[in-house]
Amino acid sequence: MTDLRCEIHEASIIVRALTEAAARITDCDRAVMLHSQTGEVLDCNQAASDLLGVPADVLVGRALGDGGGELFYTVESTGRAMPCDRFPVARALRGETVVAEVVGVFRASGWFSWLSVDAAPLGPGGLVLVSFVEVEPSVAIPC
Fold first, then answer.
1. Is the pTM above the cut of 0.70?
2. What string of H, E and C letters represents the secondary structure of 69-80?
3. What is the secondary structure of 27-59 as a DSSP string?
4. Minimal CB count within 10 Å: which of 46, 49, 82, 140?
């Protein structure tokens, strides 16, 4: 019986964290995405959809790295393709807090932009909150 109580308690904590995260996502000016413990996109705001050029209903439910070049793909500040294990969300899933990581994003339409990305674990349950904002090329490209 104790195990069941623990599971119910953990589930209620996760639901509370999801509810709080959803409120933060909606009210935020930055692009924000909420990821599950497996990297799947659980929610995103309109700014994230706009910056990535992908409708929210297409982003939600996609697994980590499931842009596959079809929707968009990312590059490191050096211009090299970013492997999935280097994505800020993947690093946050491993417990790392990522602050102001410069990432280049190519959309399928040919549009390119540099983003400054933050990613951090969000409470219990393994959720990760990622936020990003477009930056000028002079800020993004190291000299």
1. yes
2. CCCEEEECCCCC
3. H-SSEEEEE-TTS-EEEE-HHHHHHHTS-HHHH
4. 46
Asked if 48 contacts 57 with a C-beta cutoff of 8 angstroms, the reply is no
Closest listed residue to residue 41, CA positions, set 21, 61, 22: 61
Q: Convert the pLDDT of each residue in 15-45 to its tens digit.
A: 566 556 555 555 567 899 999 999 999 999 9
- Please give, one letter per residue, the 3-state secondary structure of 82-110: CCHHHCHHHHHHCCCCEEEEEEEEEECCC
Of 4-8, 20-24, 71-75, 98-102, highest mean pLDDT: 98-102
Q: How far apart are CA 103 and CA 114, in angstroms?
A: 6
Q: Distance between CA 92 and CA 129 in Å, rounded? A: 9
